[in-house]
Here is the input.
Amino acid sequence: MSETPSTDISHDQHAVRRGKLAEMRATGFDPFRANVSPTHFSQDAKALYVEGQDNAVTVTVAGRLVTFRVQGGSSFVKIQDQQGVIQLYFRKDVLGEERYQFFKKGLDLGDIIGVTGTLFLTKTGEITVRVDAFTLVSKALRPLPEKWNGLTDSEQIYRQRYLDLIVNTESRNRLMTRSKIVSHIRRFLEDRQFLEVETPVLQAIAGGAAARPFQTHHNTLGVDFVLRISLELYLKRMLVGGYDRVFEIGRNFRNEGVSRRHNPEFTMLEVYQAYSDYRGMMTLVQDLLRSICQNILGVSEIKHAASGEVINFGGEWREVRYKDLIIEKTGDAGWFSRSKEEKVAGVQKLGLYADPKWEEFELTNEIFGKLIEPKLIQPTFVTHLPKELCPLAKITPDDPGTIDVFELIIGGMEIAPAYSEQNDPDVQRAMFEAQAGEEQQKVDQDFLLALEHGMPPAGGMGIGIDRLCILLTGAESIRDVILYPQLRPGS
RNA sequence: GGUUUCCUAGCUCAAUGGUAGAGCAGUUGACUCUUAAUCAAUUGGUUCCGGGUUCGAGUCCCGGGGGAACCA
Here is the structure.
């Protein structure tokens, strides 16, 4: 007799689980061919419990095993579904020897099961399902991350988001809040008779913003395309087409840096309303953000994660001119009539890097971006921006150097820019050409043709959904509010 | 792109240049109201990869891969 070298696989959780699966299949049960019909989600089920009436209500619930406590002939386990966690109580005398043994030995943390049973209250006051019958409907062949510390390795959190969602309640809640915010935005706008539309991602010219686009190619047409960097120009064509209130929530792509605040693909909301203007957009965005706070977060103020300051969404929102903020910061009432050399010196004096090659408005905007914007924590409408910053807005009637726009800053971040949209095709063409001259951008002639057919006066607004979610969920990074942030492909 | 920093068991983390360890998870056993259940026993390592220095490298050096923070 040769002794068979019994290889100890007890340390290899993957192998152990595969072994359990093989055993089940050998007895004629394949969990991957089983299913269950849940009658309730976990929290809905718990809500059915009537005080003092144990085992009166029968439910079927399903989810992933996240806690497993065997205690001889009775066991408590917990399963997790979309709504959260519910405790289950398994007893040998209810299930019988064979099924109880299958439960004890066949199941592992991470498995997905369905159970039918009755609701009761444990000694310690937790509503629990007393299990009469159960089915395994998916075997987890890999173990879950540790239960107490969860998953902390940021790389694994992003690459295997599903594990993060299973194990880190905070991530789960934060990303679910994002879904609810987006859904609420749709409802809010639809209630105001805005129509949601979808416009092309593949575009011949990347318009509506200044950013480096991703290049791609259509084989059959034999044409180079870019992925859109903005939604703006196609939505405005909708205004020409007679859709007076439109919006799109869509992905934009910018081939630029990746950071805590930037992902190469990000989600924008853009809204256009005919016969409105940037002041109308102020009301709209205030109402929208307050509505999200009330209905989704259930609050009227939130704590700003970075500064610790409490941001108040109620009350009057501050409104201030760009120019006044710059003068205040530089302490120079004559800043805007200084020469370029003086501005370079002025920027450097404030401790910032200033490139002499920059345009004057860029020098000034460096001060705004680096020293002013990060300090604006409470909701602030910055108005009357220099016209060079955006070629798509109307010039302020009594100040040809500025445009009828605002930038809403909250928590030191630009949350929502809005314009009185330029609808004069000739002015628009001149602005495009001036910009094209500087940056060698192609002019979107097709858009100008549309404007020549007549676009109603309109207010337009954009909201960076990712940044809004950072703000409202107290996240530290854009990666925490994007399910699958961009990473280098793993090895 | 630059600077700094991190990568050790399935997960969370230890380890003066000198025998790679702990908790959880896993395995075996006990336990019919547990709450990070408890108790007893126990398995588990290409220390990200490739070189180098050294009697000796998880640790020091060089190159590469990936992550993070700050800067651009």
Q: What stands out?
A: Chain A has two domains: 13-138, 166-317+378-480. Chain A has 15 helices and 20 strands. Confidence is low (pLDDT under 50) at residues 1-5 of chain A.
